[in-house]
Amino acid sequence: MNLPLSLSGQTQTRKAEHLRICLDEDVQFAQTTNGLERYRFIHCCLPEINRDEINLRTQFLGKSLSYPLLISSMTGGTEFAGTINRRLAEVAQHYNMAMGVGSQRVALEKPQVAATFAVRSHAPDILLFANLGAVQLNYKYGLDECRRVVDLLQADALILHLNPLQECIQARGDTNFCGLLDKIEKLCGKISVPVIAKEVGNGISATMATRLIDAGMSAIDVAGAGGTSWAKVESERAENSLQRRLGMTFADWGLPTAECITTIREVAPEIPLIASGGLRHGLDVAKAIALGADIAGLALPFLQAAAESEAALYELVEVLIAEITTVLFCTGTANLQEFKRSQVLQRVK
To answer: To which H or E segment does residue 86 belong?
Structure first.
């Protein structure tokens, strides 16, 4: 697909601005939380297990992971983003965690930046997710482009991200979402890898999850409210007062992550489910898994650590592992399978 240079340049500039704003500005939800504070673990004062023998291994989309952690989709398309992705891939390989990259649209528009996404050489064994905006299926993208981004990464699955609010606020956003579900269904029937539906921070309802699963989605990433507000991010990038006002008005729009997990699990008990959206530490991860998620994705904590140094990134993962392990130990559960079966979480509000 040959696109105007101006369009590819706009996309690359947007990528750089998104990174800067997420790192330097306060773009977190101000009032809406991820909902996990409404739950508390039942403490076990006598675990009768050895903490050193706790096992955090799990399976997701047929691949074994040492920890139930996903480095959520964030970036790519600039030199700095390439450095971030390399560091993230190396830590994912070291700890055998899953990883997604940011939207690869810019790599299709501007092939010379494709290398900033291509992390497989740094992480030959990880569960790796390619990523495109679902709305691009209405803007001349199709099966060929989806295959190309998967091939670029040698990815194990393709994320189709859903971001209607962000597109409403973004300058020159792509807001034609008509007929997308039918196009998604056709894509899922033809592409050779699993397809994952992912919001970008406003959540997926049980009703929409059911429709997406019926259309052929192999997994759902709820990406609920409570973390980074992309309405706020786009407000920071606004080119006029209307966009700025829209971004601030809808800064707290969305479904809390905890609500997405529980309601989707009620209607789809077997679907592979990723919890993301405002998860900031291992206690959040453990709560999300206890509520029904299979793995948990974090973005901002990984981005902040990767931007600082490789050492900070490894330190973050060690802390996350220690926090999740401590939850299992203090609830008397020796592995994730037992943890998910046990009724160790109670609602307190």
So the answer is: helix 79-95
